[in-house]
Tumor necrosis factor ligand superfamily member 10 (Amphiprion percula), 287 residues
Amino acid sequence: MAISISVQCLGLITLAAILLQTIAVAVSFMYFNKVLSTMQQSFSRSSVSCLINTNLHSEFEDPASEDKKSDPCWQVTQQLHHHIEKKIADRFQKEISTAMRNKLAGMLPVLSPSMRGVPLPKVAAHVTGVVSSQEPPAAESSRSSRGYLGERIRAWEGQRGLSFLQNMELREGELLVPRAGLYYIYAQTYFRLPSTGETEGDAKEEEGTELVQYIYKKMSSYTVPILLMKSSRSACWPRGQEPGLFSLHQAGTTFLQPADRLFITVSNASTMEMDGRASYFGAFLVG
C-alpha cells in the first residue's frame, strides 16, 4: 500500500515538473517574441525616419564629420542619394542625346554619312570648294550670253572630305535633282580681297567693290536659268598688308522638279577662296 502511494506521488511530481517546464517555455517564447516584435518595429520606424527625415540635409550638412560618417543612417542616405543622382543623370543624358540626334538629322545637311545614329535625308547633297589650277574666269559686268549673271563656279567636290551625295548627282558644277519636292538650298562663298599694298592703283581703296552670290535653277523645259536667290555686300579694299576676308551666305526653300539643275555664280570669282570649309553649297529634300 505504501509503495503504491509512493509511485502515485512520484508520478504527480513528474507531471507537475513537466507542466511547469511547459509553462516556462511558453512564457519565455511569448516574452522573446514580444521583445523581437518591439525591436523590429523600432528598427522599421528608425529606418523610415532616416529616409524621410525633413531635417536630414541640415543634420548631415558636414560630410567630413567622423561621427556622421560612422552613422549607418548617413551612409544609407548618401548611397541612396548617389544612386538616384546617377540614374537621373543617365536618363537625362540618354534623352538629350536622342533629342539632339533627331534635331541634327533634320536641320543640318552637312553631317557626314559616317556618323552613326544620325540618318541623312533621303535626297541630299553637300559639295565643297576645290582649289583649281586653271585660270579664273574673266569678269562679267553684265548678264552673260547664257542668261545668268556672274561667273559660274564649277570646281566642286562631292565625294571626299566633308562633302557627300545622297541620291543626287554632281555634273559640271551642277546638282541634278532626282525627284520632285520641296528642297532646302543653301550656299556660302568666301572671298579674299588683296590689300592696296599688293595691287596697283589707289583708286580701289576709295571705290571699293561689290560681292554678289547667285543661286540659279536650270530647267529642261526652259532655256534661260531662273534666279532663285541672291546675296550681296559692299566691301572696301583693305588697307595695309593684310588681305580682306568676306563671306556671303544665303539659304531658302523652293519646289523643284526632276532633272532640274542647281548651280552657283559669283561676281568676283578671281578673289574667291575655294577652301572646302569656307565655300560650299548643297540642297536636301524636306517634303
